[in-house]
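Below is a filled-in request sheet from our internal design queue. Each sheet records the structural input a requester submitted and the sequence that came back. We keep these sheets so that new team members can see what a complete request looks like end to end.

REQUESTER: design group, bay 2
PRIORITY: normal
MODE: inverse folding
CHAIN LENGTH: 80
BACKBONE (tokenized):
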């Protein structure tokens, strides 16, 4: 099963997350199929999130499920 979720990067106490499309059997920071965006919780709200909406819609049409945290980010930062 394919899932759209966050993968953690950055250093200790300064997290940075990539929004990735991955197989559910892969570890959180492991192998992924495609990187479709990022989320930076440290900086201000205007520049902290980027998600390629076209690729997100494509993967949803292919049957990928979205994690709770990514859906929360989409509802708070995007008007869709």
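RETURNED SEQUENCE:
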């Amino acid at each position: 099963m394919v899932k759209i979720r966050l993968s953690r990067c950055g250093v200790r106490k300064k997290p940075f997350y990539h929004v990735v499309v991955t197989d559910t059997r892969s570890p959180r920071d492991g192998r992924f199929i495609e990187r479709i965006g990022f989320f930076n919780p440290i900086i201000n709200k205007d520049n902290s999130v980027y998600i390629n909406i076209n690729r997100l819609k494509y993967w949803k049409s292919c049957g990928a499920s979205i994690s709770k945290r990514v859906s929360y980010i989409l509802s708070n930062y995007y008007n869709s």
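SHEET NOTES:
- The longest strand covers residues 2-11.
- The chain has two helices and five strands.
FILED BY: M.R.
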